[in-house]
Amino acid sequence: MSGGPVLASTSPLMTVRGLTRALPGDPPVPLVRGLDLDIARGTFVAVVGPSGCGKSSLLYLLGLLDRPTGGSLLFDGRDTGPMDGDARAQLRLEQFGFVFQFHFLLPEFTAAENVALPIRRLGRLSTAAARTRALELLEAMGLADQANKTPDHMSGGQRQRVAIARALANDPALVLGDEPTGNLDTVNSRRVVEIFQDLAHKQGRAVVCVTHDPDVAAAADVRVRMRDGVIEGVD
Amino acid sequence: MGRFVLLLDIALKHLAMRRRQTAVAVAGVGIGVGFFLAVSAMLVGSENDFVKTLIDAAPHITISDEIDRPTPQPAVQAYPGAAVEIHGYKPRTEARGIKGWQAILAAADAVPGAIASPSLTGAVTLRVGGREQALAVVGVDPAVYARISDLESKLAFGKLRDLETTQGGVIISEELAEKLGVGMGDIVGATSARAGTRTLRIVGLIGRGQGQFGTTSGFVLLREAQSLTGQPFIINNIGVRLTDPYAAEAVADGLEARFGYKAESWQERAADFLALLVTRNIITYAVVSAILLVATFGIYSVVSNSVADKRRDIAIMRSMGFSQGDLQGVFVMEGLILAVIGIVAGWALGFIMLEVLGSLSFDVGGRARSLPIDRSLTQYFIAGGASMLSAVIAAWLPARKAARVDPVDILRGAA
Questions:
Q1: What residue ranges in B33-168 does DSSP mark as E strands?
Q2: Is A121 in contact with B6 (Cβ distance < 8 A)?
Q3: How far apart are alpha carbons B314 and B11 in whole angstroms?
Q4: Do A99 and A163 touch, CB atoms closer than 8 A?
Q5: Distance CA B250, CA B98 (A)
């Protein structure tokens, strides 16, 4: 059965209809098939399922890093299908924030510089103002004293919080996490989950988090269960 | 502007992380530019010196008494256009020389900035104490000839104007004087087929190594030459000097077409040498450009390695919202930074090399000579421009690859 239940929402931030992604081949190799999904603001969504079920593929499609081979994907009512590479990059810059399993900070830059990168690229603030904003975000993550350290001088939990601060740099409407606690201990995992809950509930952002971690799934408002590239169910 | 500064910042950070490779690449470009500069400056310098010698040694245009067609015989002139065949006649002997040379002289002088000098060249034999040497005697007006030739500056002894103040004065080369065993002020006998023997006094010596004047040529007053060779009122040569030497071909063609006498430009005279220079330039620039090309491999290597090492960072930046153009810009800038630093270092190296080369002195024909070097800024711009162009291409190729990195492939692999 292709497609799955649609999350109830009066004003969906992201609307997915019949979303399909297949790798070229004879026959094509499907990654996700005919997904229908609405993602509302202020909601923490966990996408769960066994390895290879298409969770990360869905996340990359939602984050406009990959292009679907079928179906449509609307962000805030805008169809992202006809957008060219630059328009998609601009949308990611302004509206999306990514957090990955590994921190993926740029090693040459300090924590503050890493967080300031998307702000500087957006170009709405001066370099000095971008740094101030980066410091505020680091402080909110409890990392004010780590601002001038490079990633190799920080712990795994600290790096992941810097990555979250960077994801929030341009005040995105949608935060996408790909196993964000997969490389953290229990204490740091719990802290990251609390941050994600705050982002959704207190700041009104939509958070979509792919995870194998039952604690993260339990903390989410909605759990989307996937198997073999389709949505199996929603709790 | 903010975007440019950001991309530049990232590029600088990348290079700072790989200092050794960066230093090697910069050194490569620097050495390439330095050698390009040194070689091309010497090449152009020697070419300029050689061409200047060609241009200055003799008049830019030489009109001689050679004609395209022989003057028609009187019998033919008597029946112009008639169907008459004349044979078995005795040709009339004509006096050599340029007829109506005053008109040609006036026409040449009428060219803006041009100076025309009449002369007569003939053959005599110099005799001193049983020694004999053939001399191509050139009769000139010293005041005018000094303005169309650099003979005056090539005199080791005496002055060109001394021909006017000394009865029977002659200027010969030092080499010829040595063969005859004579020096300044000495008297030599001069014999020609038509006018018998006269005596001449040496009033000037052309310095050694000035082959462009001919070691067996001698300069006398025009009327002296006319008398010496038995050709009164005759001239067989008009030398013309122009303000723009490179206009010589066009002016020569015009004069030849108008008067029928052969007018040879300095380019025509030195066509073989000029062709040789072109060949030499092609070979040398090919070799030196190869040095630059090899230098840019260093840039390609650094940028290419940087792209390979930063694939994960590229994917992350793409996820942040950096565009393909941004990523390409970062890596092209890395190449340009290497090129700019390398070029500046190369300019400094080249400048030092040119100073050292310029200070070297060589003994040529008993005279100290230094290497002719073109120190004009043009050489610096050519070396810098060629390097920059190579660097852009060398950096653009891997940068394009960076822009094409599929972030999903990288992120999947890293997860």
A1: 61-67, 115-128, 131-140, 155-157
A2: yes
A3: 12
A4: yes
A5: 21
Extract the tokens encoding B152.
């005056």
Contact A100, A210 (CB under 8 A): no
Helices B407-414, A55-62: axis angle to 10 degrees equals 140
This model of the complex carries an ipTM of: 0.87
Per CB-CB distance under 8 Å, the chain A contacts of B411 are 56, 60, 65, 100, 178
Distances (CA, A) of B112 to B108, B247, B262: 9, 11, 21
Q: In sequence order, which residues have a C-beta less than 8 Å from that of residue B242 and are 6 or more positions away? A: B60, B61, B111, B113, B114, B248, B251
Distance of residue A125 Cα from the nearest chain B Cα, in angstroms: 9
Q: How far apart are CA A112 and CA A124, in angstroms?
A: 17
Tens-digit pLDDT profile for residues B129-139: 888 899 999 99
Task: Specify the amino acid at residue B308.
Answer: A
Q: What pLDDT is attached to residue B74?
A: 67
DSSP A68: -
* Residue linked to tokens 């229908």: A36
Give, in degrees to the nearest 5, the angle at Cα B301 between B300 and B304: 80
Q: For residues B140 and B237, give the distance between their C-alpha atoms in angstroms, rounded to a whole number.
A: 10
Q: What is the pLDDT of residues A90-101, one digit of tens each?
A: 999 999 999 987
Q: Are residues B323 and A86, on separate chains, in Cβ contact within 8 Å?
A: yes
State if pTM tops 0.80: no
Q: What are phi and psi of A199, to 5 degrees?
A: -60, -40
Contact B357, B373 (CB under 8 A): yes
Say if CB B47 and CB B246 are below 8 A apart.
no
Query: Could you tell me how many helices (H) and strands (E) chain B has, helices first?
Result: 16, 12
On whether any CB of chain A is under 8 Å from the CB of B257, the answer is: no
| DSSP category for residue A152 | G
Q: What is the DSSP letter of A163?
A: H
CA count, 13 A, side-chain hemisphere, B73:
11
**Which two tokens mark B191?**
């014999």
- Residue pair B200/B168 in contact (Cβ under 8 Å)? The answer is yes
Alpha helices in B196-265 (DSSP H): 222-228, 248-259
